[in-house]
Hints:
By secondary structure, the chain is an alpha+beta fold. The chain has helices spanning about 40-50, 55-60, 90-95, and strands at about 10, 25-30, 70-75, 100-105.
Amino acid sequence: RLGVEPTKMLRRGERRRPNAPPREDDVWLYEAHVDESEPLHVHIDSLWNDFRDRKQYLLELKERLAVSVFLGYRSNNDIAGVDVPHHSLEMFRELEIPFSLSIIITP
Length: 107
C-alpha cells in the first residue's frame, strides 16, 4: 500500500550481524534515491516526495506500528554542522514524528 519497494526488510528473530541479538520486531527500511554527497535536506525532500501522497496511510500505520525516519550525518570535522531549510521539515510536522539526527564524527 505504500507504493514503493523497501530498500531492506528485517524479520523478527533475524540477526543483523552474526553476533547481534535477534530482532524483536519486523523492520521495513527505505533509503532515498539520492547520492550520499548531497546535502541532508535533499535526502529529506526526496523521502517526502516519495511518501507525501501516502501520508494518510502512514498516519494510520502509526496507530499500531512505529513509524520513524532515521537520519545520519557523517563528518571528519569535529566542528561540522548541518542546515535544514524549514520547508524540508514538512514531513516531520505532517506525520507528527520527531526530527532526529545522528551525527557521527569519523577520524
